[in-house]
Each structure stands twice: as C-alpha cells, then as structure tokens.
Specification:
The protein is mainly alpha-helical and 222 residues long. The protein has ten helices and no strands. The protein has helices at residues 2-15, 19-28, 42-49, 51-70, 90-107, 120-127, 132-149, 152-172, 181-198, 200-208. The chain is globular, with a radius of gyration of 18 Å.
C-alpha cells in the first residue's frame, strides 16, 4: 500500500509542475493566470505568448502524463493492495492510477494555490500511452476543429468527447478487440466529463460568442 501511495504522490507532484506559469514568468515576467482566459494551461499561453510557446507548454504538459505512466509507475513492486477486478494486470492498473494522479495534479496544483490548467495535454500524454490509436484519432479531431474554428477550447472539448466514441465504434462496429475495453471506456468517459467541467467557463464563452480565437501571427498580454 505504501508503495502505491508513493507512486500516486510522485505522479501528482510531476503533474502539478506549473509549466505555463513558469514559462510566462520566464518569457514575459507575467502570471499567465492574470491574462487572457486566466487559465494556467497551454491554450492560454498560445493566445498570450504566441504559438511557439503555446506548443512548447502543451508538449511539456503532455510529457508530465507520459512520465507518470512510463517512468514513475515502474517504481511499483509487490502485490496490488486491493482485489483487482479489472481486465488489466496489476502493473497496467498502476499505470492508469499514476496517469490519473498526474492529471489531477495538473488541474489542482499544490505549487500554485491548487489553481492549475484543465488537464487536456497531461491527459493526452497519459492516455496516448494506454489507448494509442483512439488518442491519435482524438488528436486529428482536435487539429481539424481548431483549424476550422480557431477555438482551442472547442477543439479540446471535441477531442475529449471523441475518444470514448472512437473506442465504442472500433470495439462494437469494427470488431476490434481493445485491451481492457470494459475498464478503459468508463475511464475515458470520466476524463471527458472532467474536461467538460474544467472547461465550463469556456463553454459559456463559446455560447455567448466571447471566447478568444487563436492567432499564429501575434501575441498579446491584455
């Protein structure tokens, strides 16, 4: 049990590293949470500091999820402390727990007053290590929606919702045997709902037409 708690704590702390806040202070000497949407995430960095820094933050945030799944989870040893009722082996279940912990750390970071980002990129890094095909399809949805609408938030929402849909279609329509489908599907649905929750302010702005669109040619700090 102690071993698993250490993995959860370390994964949370890695996920909690506030990359966007650090980047904005280093580049512009500002707190990204006081500009744009007020969110400490890659999409707001994209709007305020420009696409180069935005993409850098998104990639680094995704890396946090991958570190939890591919590195920290390997600290696991011994027997799983609870009855494992999932179709996964104990180690894969530990990887999932580590990934979720990193996402929660990103959203509620202890290093910035428990006010972090929305978990999209960190969740991407976590899930792409578990359900690679569906996450890659989700990335395609994200790219297409953002290119057409110029709304990163809309792309994030569409991508999050599309992953469980892709899983359902692949498993039940095309007959693909997705490993751990019965456990991963509820997890992706849970994460999609979590994304909707963390984007509730963006959803409101999208509805009333006040959501900011991205630009590849300029930065702003208003």
């Amino acid at each position: 049990m102690l071993n698993l708690l250490v993995i959860i704590l370390l994964s949370y702390l890695v996920g909690a590293i506030p990359i966007s806040i650090i980047m904005s202070k280093l580049v512009k000497g500002i707190d990204i949470r006081k500009h744009g949407s007020g969110n400490a995430g890659g999409s707001n960095v994209f709007r305020i500091l420009g696409w180069k820094y935005g993409i850098t933050v998104i990639l680094l945030d995704a890396t946090k999820g991958m570190i939890a799944v591919l590195l920290i989870s390997h600290l696991y040893f011994g027997n799983f402390p609870f009855a494992n009722a999932t179709p996964f082996d104990d180690f894969t279940l530990v990887q999932i727990i580590a990934g979720v912990s990193a996402v929660l750390g990103h959203i509620w970071t202890i290093f910035a007053g428990f006010k972090g980002g929305k978990g999209i990129a960190t969740g991407l890094g976590f899930l792409v290590s578990i359900v690679t095909v569906d996450m890659l399809l989700g990335l395609v949805v994200f790219a297409v929606v953002v290119l057409i609408s110029k709304y990163i938030s809309l792309g994030s929402l569409a991508a999050a919702a599309s992953v469980p849909i892709f899983m359902i279609i692949r498993e039940n329509v095309f007959g693909v045997d997705i490993s751990g489908y019965g456990t991963i599907l509820p997890l992706t649905i849970f994460l999609a709902v979590l994304v909707m929750y963390t984007h509730k302010a963006n959803i409101g702005r999208l509805i009333n037409g006040s959501e900011s669109k991205i630009s590849l040619s300029k930065t702003k700090t208003k």
